[in-house]
Design goal:
This protein is of the alpha/beta class. It folds into 2 domains: 262 residues, Rossmann fold (3-Layer(aba) Sandwich), CATH 3.40.50.1100; 135 residues, Rossmann fold (3-Layer(aba) Sandwich). The chain is built from 19 helices and 15 strands. The chain has a 7-stranded mixed beta sheet with strand order 1-4-5-15-10-11-14, sandwiched between helices. It has a 4-stranded parallel beta sheet with strand order 8-7-6-9, with helices on both faces. It has a two-stranded antiparallel ribbon with strand order 2-3. The longest helix has 20 residues. The protein is globular and about 60 Å long. The termini are far apart. Bound molecules: pyridoxal-5'-phosphate.
Length: 451
């Protein structure tokens, strides 16, 4: 019987990130200036990002070296384990082989530190003393707080107000790692004050919190802004996940027929999938790659592929992406990390080119999948990750029906230890299966037509 856990020695930590822009036949169209609607140059992004990250954003080099200082910190938890989910396979009585890359082993409990550390490093190198950001449920805020703490950079987090009150423990983590956290919309920015004036009880959204964090960074000489997903350089930093997984599968003598990840802004999915998509695009390897999202925020499955803002206040550049409209207000589903209105331009383009597939699920089947995983493999998955697990189970059941022993690989993006109240709700039968109403999608998109 082969191994359950395939570990790589520390020296196998990747030395370079894989840049998919080197191998894509069609690249996403460039970002546009929010005012002039002309393609933007690097100088426009310079007030909010360090130059090295801006260069990575537009680079077409296939391999970008990972600085030693970044590798030294990644080594605290990387290479992460690749696990064979034998007990889940058995419970499903499937001929499929199921592997997961376990990103829950990072100090913050998710894949997000992989980019947080790199971003804090480049900021430090270029003299940034303070970084602002937004966070939804708190996973990104806590990852960046930890990274800033390692490099002695001040960190200010605008946390979506509902989560600020519902997820106090992630807030504690951020405080412990030295960040300051404010509920968004806040009184600290013009964008926040504007929203509060119109609706003092606004629960906030990622789009609002981004507006606040960007405004804050632009307004201060010592500050830059950092984003935890969506942008090309963020997806790039996550490719350590797929690069390690490839080596680990090689040790196991296996290769995936299906690669699966959940998608919020798209970074964990990209991190696992891009190094495999390279084989599909350059060596003609046959493989299905599936992005999984909630029906409550169905960006890839029901959004439009077009230019849109990244935030509510229309301060960010316009990105060509699948979008539900920048004024999208998500319902309070528990997968807080999957509630962004847009999708990474690289993933949007790959989806438009039919290189990847997308599907959406409602909450209860997703939590049922998570419960099965916890009962067979032991680990409690984050609600975001559980979307991927639901798709994995569906694919494993298809393999059973079709009598196929396919290899299924997915990204276990994070553990659910801070999401136990969501599990309480599930166990008590109190979760609602919510689909974002078709007419709200149409209204939001109709407003976009006017841009
Ligand atoms: C933030 C988060 C996600 C979604 O973000 P992506 O950029 O799409 O990866 C998924 N899973 C976990 C555990 C997260 O914290």
């Amino acid at each position: 019987m082969s191994e359950v856990k395939i570990m790589l020695p520390e020296k196998e930590l990747p030395e370079a990130w894989y840049n998919i822009q080197a191998d894509m036949e069609v690249l996403p169209p460039p970002p546009l200036h929010p005012g002039t609607k002309e393609p933007i140059g690097p100088e426009m992004l310079a007030p909010i990002f360090p130059m090295e990250l801006i260069k990575q954003e537009v680079s077409r080099e296939r391999w970008i070296p990972i600085p030693d200082e970044v590798r030294d910190i990644l080594r605290l938890w990387r290479p992460s384990p690749l696990c064979r989910a034998r007990r889940l396979e058995k419970a499903l009585d499937t001929p499929a082989r199921i592997y997961y890359k376990y990103e829950g082993a990072s100090p913050a409990g998710s894949h997000k530190p992989n980019t947080a550390v790199a971003q804090a490093y480049y900021n430090k190198e270029e003299g940034t003393r303070r970084i602002t950001t937004e966070t939804g449920a708190g996973q990104w805020g806590s990852a960046l707080a930890m990274a800033c703490n390692f490099f002695g950079i001040e960190c200010k987090v605008y946390m979506v107000k509902v989560s600020y009150h519902q997820k106090p423990y992630r807030r504690t983590l951020m405080h412990l790692w030295g960040a300051s956290v404010v509920a968004s919309p806040s009184e600290d920015t013009a964008a926040g004050r504007g929203i509060l004036a119109a609706d003092p009880d606004s629960p906030g959204s990622l789009g609002v919190a981004i507006s606040e964090a960007v405004e804050d960074a632009v307004g201060r000489e010592d500050s830059k802004y950092s984003l935890g997903s969506v942008l090309n350089h963020v997806l790039l930093h996550q490719t350590v996940v797929g690069l390690e997984a490839k080596k680990q599968l090689e040790i196991a003598g296996d290769y995936p027929n299906v690669v699966i990840g959940c998608v919020g802004g798209g970074s964990n999915f990209a991190g696992l999938a891009f190094p495999f998509l390279k084989d599909k695009m350059t060596d003609g390897k046959a493989m299905r790659v599936i992005a999984v999202e909630p029906t409550a925020c169905p960006t890839l499955t029901r959004g439009l592929y077009r230019y849109d803002f990244g935030d509510v206040a229309q301060m960010t550049p316009l990105l060509m992406m699948f979008t539900l409209g920048h004024d999208f207000m998500p319902s309070a589903i528990h997968a807080g990390g999957l509630r962004y209105h847009g999708m990474a331009p690289l993933i949007s383009s790959l989806c438009d080119q039919k290189q990847i597939e997308a599907r959406a699920y409602t909450q209860n089947p997703v939590f049922a999948a998570a419960a099965l995983f916890a009962r067979t493999e032991g680990i409690v998955p984050a609600p975001e990750t559980s979307h991927a697990i639901k798709a994995v189970i569906d694919e494993a059941e298809r393999c059973k029906r079709e009598g196929k022993s396919e290899t299924i690989l997915f990204n276990f993006s994070g553990h659910g230890h801070f999401d136990l109240s969501a599990y309480d709700g599930y166990l008590a039968g109190k979760l609602e299966d919510y689909e974002y109403p078709e007419e709200r999608v149409r209204e939001s998109l109709a407003r976009l037509e006017g841009l």
